[in-house]
Amino acid sequence: MRTRRDRKFQLWDMLSQFVFLGGALAANLPLTTDANCNCYRTNATTSNYFAHHLFFDFRNLPQYARVPPLIGDPDGNTQAAVASSYFSLPQWTSYWAAQNWNNSEMMRMNNSDLSGSDATVLMVNSPNNVYVDRDRDPRPASQTHLVMRTARLAAGFQTVAEIESVSTGFRFLSIRMLARTRGPPGAITAMFTYRPPAGPLPVQEADLEIRTRDPENAVQYTNQPSWNADGDIPAATRNTTMPRGSRWTGWAHYRLDWTPYLSTWYVNGQFASSIAFQAPRDPAQVILNSWSDGGSWSGNMTANATAAMQIQWIEMVFNNTDPVYTKFGSCKNVCSIDETHVVGTPVLMPSGGDIPLSSLPRLVAATYDIWDIEAAILVQQYVKDHEATFEIKKVPPDSDHRSPSEVSVCRHYA
């Protein structure tokens, strides 16, 4: 008898065949600039529309390449200046900020139920750990890349790196990076959306995380929170294997699509995972980091050991609730960053539409009564053009005798 697990993998094998539609089409589409694009359409099974595009390219910055020496005391890390003048340029400071906070308050609490951390090591963020370095490979993929470094120092603390978006108003996006992780066990590298908890409301967060203690093809995806007072929340997390022999020690293309009711991840153009449970809803930041705190999640790094996430570029299309991102009109000129043959440069798609730009942050709305996550994922993947309604009936996999559940999803521009 086929199990629920068998049906799950059969479902995703079917869906993954339709996820990426680029290739031959890309060569025939004209390159353009963001000034000519009213909106951007992504190439997942269900197309999503976004109003804005950003591209951060770290591949050709030799004038800023410099490896700053590690700073041996916590205060020095907190007070450190940026590693080079690149991080004082408007094209960086308008969008990103390197952090200098530490976890001393959480450690003083000494209560993981309250702090959400079982750290055993002081962890100090430092702008000194975010820098541009030359690619020193025998056959380099680029001249330079961004480095986010973490190190366990002899003084007994962990120096770490984190960049946060200046904007806290991202509401749905598709973010990608070309990156790799290097270093010994005990470190975490990550890319995620983040909205902090507020009173009784829990954190909203869609994570991509790599643990250097794990096999080199293992990546974890989560819609936080992943635990509560009763223990772990299995529905919040997927542990996956990178496709086609890829390893996180090598360059890989990572992508997170945060859309209404769903977080979806891809690696090197291949579907990796999708989670509808606890998908973020409200405006959030984008964060990338490289860290360790000696806790049960990261593990302990050996003294004087160093790990890093190296990034060639970051790209995103997104909607944003900040007033500065307000756009009017309709989506006449539809562009794509998926169908282009020049990374970072959009192409103009054959035809646009009359989608009001003001509606993009809430382009897909859904109401459903579901019995399992897979049903919600199936619906989200197959919602088609606007004002379409679908009903899906399935027999719950844990029983062959119960009546089918019904799922209805409506896509609209309200």
Rg, Å, rounded: 22 Å
Beta-strand fraction estimate: 25-35%
**How many E strands?**
24
Query: Biggest sheet: strands, sense, closure?
Result: 16 strands, mixed
CATH C-level name of the largest domain: Mainly Beta
Unreliable sequence segments = 1-24, 362-414
**What is the name of the CATH architecture of the largest domain?**
Sandwich
Q: What is the count of distinct domains?
A: 2
What structural class do you assign from the helix and strand content? mainly beta
Distance between the termini: 44 Å
Multimerization state: single chain
Please tell me what the overall shape is.
globular
Protein name: GH16 domain-containing protein
Domain GH16: 56-322
Keywords: Signal
Signal peptide: 1-26
Task: Please give a structural write-up.
It holds the Pfam family Glyco_hydro_16. One of its GO terms (molecular function) is hydrolase activity, hydrolyzing O-glycosyl compounds. The protein has 414 residues and is mainly β. It folds into 2 domains: 4-37 and 326-410, no CATH class; 52-320, Jelly Rolls, CATH 2.60.120. 11% of the residues lie in helices and 35% in strands. It has 7 helices and 24 strands. It has helices at residues 4-16, 24-27, 74-78, 90-93, 104-109, 112-115, 373-382; strands spanning 39-41, 49-50, 52-57, 96-98, 123-125, 130-134, 144-152, 158-165, 170-182, 188-195, 204-211, 218-224, 227-228, 231-232, 237-241, 252-259, 262-267, 270-275, 285-291, 306-320, 334-336, 347-348, 389-394, 405-410. The strands form 4 sheets. It has a 16-stranded mixed β-sheet that branches. Strands 2-1-21-22 form a 4-stranded mixed β-sheet, with no helix packed on it. Strands 13-14 form a two-stranded antiparallel ribbon. Strand 16 (252-259) and strand 17 form a beta hairpin. 39% of the residues are buried.
